[in-house]
Amino acid sequence: MRSGIFFLVAVVVAAIVFGCALAINNDYVFFAGYTVLQFIVLATAWNILGGYTGYVNFGSAAFFALGAYSSVFMHKFYPMPIPVLIVIAAVISGLVGLGMGYLTLRLRGAFFAIATLALAVVLQTLIVNWNYVGGSRGAYVVRPATVAFLGNYVHYLFLLMLGLAVIALTVARTIEHSSLGYGFATIRDDELAAEASGVPTLRLKLIATTISGALMGMAGAPFPYYIGYLQPSSAFGLEYAVNSIAMPIIGGTATWLGPLIGAIVLGSLQQYITVTISSSVNVLIVGLLLVIFVVIAPNGIVGLVQSILRRRRYERKPA
Amino acid sequence: MSANLLEVESLGKRFGGFIALDGIDLAVAAGERVGLIGPNGSGKSTLVNCLCGALGNYTGAVRFDGRNIGGLSAHQRTRLGMARSFQLPRPFASMTVADNIRVPLVYAVAARSGVHMTNEQIVTRSAEMLALVGLADKARQFPRDLTQVEMRKLELARAMAAEPKLLIADEAMAGLSHSEVEDIVALLIRLNQRGITVILIEHIMRAVMTFSQRLVVLVSGKKIADGKPDEVIRNQEVERAYLGQ
Ligand SMILES: Nc1ncnc2c1ncn2[C@@H]1O[C@H](COP(=O)(O)OP(=O)(O)OP(=O)(O)O)[C@@H](O)[C@H]1O
Ligand SMILES: [Mg+2]
């Protein structure tokens, strides 16, 4: 019930964001905004596995690329509207997430993380050698200039990603407030104690890898239409793997709010740096920020604010 | 059809070349209170881990409530009605004390019966469980704020919350004061009177003797005695094992 209200509020906020972007009426705002929104979805998706259950996925780029390439494939095979492509991408990358979960179920900590990295390498190799979707050369996906109702196609892509962000955040928050969320947290805290309390840890891990993978694939599905020319190196870019880890950790992994804040702050910062300096410093800066936060504020921006508020309240009430 | 709730048949467990459990036979009747003692490192916790599915790769058979539970994972055994406390407390660190209790309520009790519990029911029930072990006023704190003794009580409350048929308490009382030990023993006996079978692993002999209707002794992975408590502690082999350590 409360999830329904959250969803409505998120839709209203999204509508306001879209209205503001329209009011500014500058195509750059839509281009940059699309990227930030895409990172909100990726960061939120990563956090469902990495933050809630504590399993660190280094292969986010692979799931993102899977979504992007499933769109490229469909574009050649049987063109369909992007919302349908998003659903197809969700199914494919959800299944790959499930498969990854099965293969890595018994791996913990660093070993799990390495396995996800390996999965990304394997997938990239497959795509590079698959000519139908462009192989190493890449593939052109010609985007129509206009779309019905909205007119401007970039506005349409922006709106789609806004919708995906609303869906991802609603899913994350719903999980957090459900038994599933408690189950995920027990996995992060202590799997042995979780099993002893009746938590089916293996099944919950599979649910987490599936949902997380599906959402990442959804974020990737519209990407070929956004970029126009998709190469393996851009779809499997380091920035996706790094950002989808860094944004939740810098924002805070405990709640849905952390990845949202992390993605907005880091995403906007990177857009700014891309314009003012160069996009090549982005990964460097994100890496530095990540190290700083891990050392100084392991609970991220959200955790930092919470502890400041708690201290304030404590000081106002002298013992 | 026997009245035994738990039947263990020549259970063996090795860690590499080290034999931790060697041909353990054990039957526990429904409703019984069994004490399990033995010197440090004799294999008591290992036995619990094998019974509850926390350790796999053991030899022999375990039957619970009339069925062979060999292939079942730990959470399935919990749902069948086995619950244990850990000797070294393993609380869910990111959750409040009350939420720690919520986990078995949702994932063992509700999952077992298939009946959804409302949030209100869960809150009431977890408050009851915490009150039973004297942690009522700690409900909203986090495990890191608890003392070692309180953590042991939380362990016990979490195991009891799973509403087991068989409760295995692995040294739940170490470090507790005289009166606290009496409270916990009384609590376990009360639970037993409500029909729960209890296996108590304990070094505090006073507690074991008050509690147990039957005493089982493990030494170096072997069961060396099993019987009436006062007879077992007069057993020469048992005396030797304890004096020898
Ligand atoms: N995971 C493990 N790997 C290797 N050896 C183990 C493992 N767990 C237990 N052991 C060994 O098995 C033996 C039995 O240990 P166990 O913990 O079952 O003893 P215990 O009877 O519970 O002792 P205590 O009274 O100290 O709790 C010990 O020698 C211990 O070192
Ligand atoms: Mg032990």
Radius of gyration of chain A: 20 Å
Distance between the termini of chain B: 41 Å
Which structural class matches the secondary elements of chain B? alpha/beta
For the biggest β-sheet of chain B, the strand order reads 6-7-8-3-9-10
Oligomeric state of the chains in view: heterodimer
Range of helix content of chain A: over 70%
Count of discrete structural domains of chain A: 1
Q: Looking at CATH, which topology of the largest domain in chain B would you report?
A: Rossmann fold
Q: What composes the largest sheet of chain B?
A: 6 strands, mixed
What would CATH call the homologous superfamily of the largest domain in chain B? P-loop containing nucleotide triphosphate hydrolases
Q: How would you describe this protein?
A:
The complex is a heterodimer of chains A (319) and B (245). With 319 residues, chain A is mainly alpha-helical. Chain A contains 15 helices and four strands. In chain A, the strands form two sheets. Chain A has a two-stranded antiparallel ribbon with strand order 1-4. Chain A has a two-stranded antiparallel sheet with strand order 2-3. In chain A, helix 3 (60-77) packs across helix 4 (82-104), helix 3 runs parallel beside helix 5 (109-128) and helix 12 (238-251) packs across helix 13 (257-276). The model of chain A has no long low-confidence stretch (mean pLDDT 91). Chain B is an alpha/beta fold and 245 residues long. Chain B folds into two domains: 1-81 and 166-245, P-loop containing nucleotide triphosphate hydrolases (Rossmann fold); 90-163, no CATH class. Chain B contains nine helices and ten strands. Chain B has a six-stranded mixed beta sheet with strand order 6-7-8-3-9-10, with helices on both faces. In chain B, strand 1 (4-15) and strand 2 (18-29) form a beta hairpin. Chain B is globular, with a radius of gyration of 18 Å. The model of chain B has no long low-confidence stretch (mean pLDDT 92). The chains are: A mainly alpha (319), B alpha/beta (245). Chain A binds chain B through residues 179, 182-183, 185-186, 188-190, 192-202, 254, and chain B through 52-54, 73-76, 78-79, 83-84, 86, 90-95, 99, 102-104, 106-109, 111-112, 158-159, 162. The complex binds adenosine-5'-triphosphate and magnesium ion. The site of adenosine-5'-triphosphate has 11 residues of chain B, from helix 1.
